[in-house]
Amino acid sequence: MITRVQRHLAGLAVVGGLAISAFGCDKVPLLAPSGSAITLTTPVTALPINGSADIVAQVIEPAGTPPQRGTLVSFTTTLGSIQPGQAETDASGIVRVKFQAGTASGTALITAISGGVATSSQTPLRILIGTAAVGSVRVSANPTLLPAIGGTSVITAQALDVNGNPLSAAPVTFSTSAGLIDQSFATTDQNGLATTTLRTATNATVTAAVGAQAGSTTPPTTPPASGTTPPATTPSASGVASGSVTVNVSGAPTLLITPPASPPGEGLPAAFTIAVTAAATNGSSVRDVTINWGDGTSQSLGVVTGNATVSHIYKTAGVYPINVSVTDSFGNVVSQSTSVTVIPVASPTIIITPSVPTNPQPTTTVTFTIQVTPPTGVGVRKTLVNYGQGQSTDDLGAVTGTVTVRHEYRNHAANESFTVTVAVDDTLGRTTTGSTTITIP
């Protein structure tokens, strides 16, 4: 076994009986003896760009004991740098240095050597740097459901390293199966987050990729109809990972308005059929149906599903534009328009048929058959008969059809004439009059 003294004397030469340093006056560095082992450890296995980590080298001699204090150990790395590049062991055979990742992504292979003793080239200390350290990508969207006319959604991707820690300063590539991405490339912040904005009017799946082949992942061409997909992650085997999220566009309800088959009359109820159907895919419940009748009035029907029949009365004849809108609980608004032509309504017909006696009498009783025929949909509220003798009237009430009444004419002159008038008030607020003239012998 070579002792520490022998290792020290190995650097001396004997000249004239004197031991002289083979290296002149330079101090000979202490190196680990043959057969020793050097083990490298670090608390991390992955670092972001410009990250750093402590490296610990443990030197153990063949006897299982630490080497002499001050044994020199040199370090090398394939990526980044080590500060200092050489350091001496302490009394426990330990050396501590700092690894700096630098600005390049990749795998740093770190080795240590002292004399003829080195870490195994087959098992160097490995630290993944930058995108090489990516383990997964989580993607989320806000919101995950857009209105039927489309809109914008903020897409957030979080890059995590192989240990599940946020990966900062990692470039992220965004792609979408539909719509437009405002920013296709972004860099993660200190929390491993990168964002972009999706603009779409159709279902879209957005994929965020991190790594040497970022962006090569092809997103699904047909997004699921159900809603947001859970953030999908492609496990990283070589510094490449991706994740996806689906943003759906809500389905809008359908709406149909059917006006009356024949033109309605002014003042009469006009029946309209409203058919509302909620969207079968990505739809939401109907919240309200509103009708603008085109005559300065509107009406809210509330929640309508299926068919609903709604009546409206137009007071005057004319052509009226009608607009119906349905709003669902997501805020989608769908409108349909039509028009209706309102026609005038005929007045009630009044026919007065008198029956006058032919022989002269001081008091003559005349019989009147009165027929009142209102148009369809119109009712009679009051019928007044004026017999032509001043204020002599009868209120027959709501006459519809034929009614017979009698009236006595007293103290009339021979061959005196009287004008008999019938006034009918209908349910449209109109007054229609009919008259006839009689001559009493």
Compose a concise summary of this entry:
By secondary structure, the protein is mainly β.
Overall mean pLDDT stands at: 87
Indicate how many domains the architecture comprises.
4
Question: What is the top-level CATH class of the largest domain?
Answer: Mainly Beta
CATH superfamily of the largest domain: Immunoglobulins
Question: Largest sheet, if any?
Answer: 6 strands, mixed
Which residues sit in consecutive blocks of at least 5 with pLDDT less than 50?
Answer: 1-25, 213-237
CATH architecture of the largest domain: Sandwich
What is the number of helices? 1
Radius of gyration: 51 Å
How many extended strands?
36
Shape: rod-shaped
Task: Label the structural class.
Answer: mainly beta
Walkthrough of the structure:
- With 441 residues, the protein is mainly β.
- 1% of the residues lie in helices and 53% in strands.
- The protein is built from 1 helix and 36 strands.
- It has one helix at 4-9; strands spanning 12-15, 18-21, 37-41, 46-47, 52-60, 72-77, 81-83, 86-88, 94-100, 106-114, 117-118, 125-129, 134-142, 145-146, 151-161, 171-176, 180-181, 185-187, 193-200, 204-211, 232-233, 240-249, 254-258, 269-277, 286-292, 298-302, 306-313, 318-328, 333-342, 349-355, 363-373, 380-386, 393-395, 401-410, 416-426, 431-440.
- Strands 4, 6, 8, 10, 11 and 12 form a 6-stranded mixed β-sheet that branches.
- The radius of gyration is 51 Å and the shape is rod-shaped.
- Residues 1-25 and 213-237 have low confidence and may be disordered.
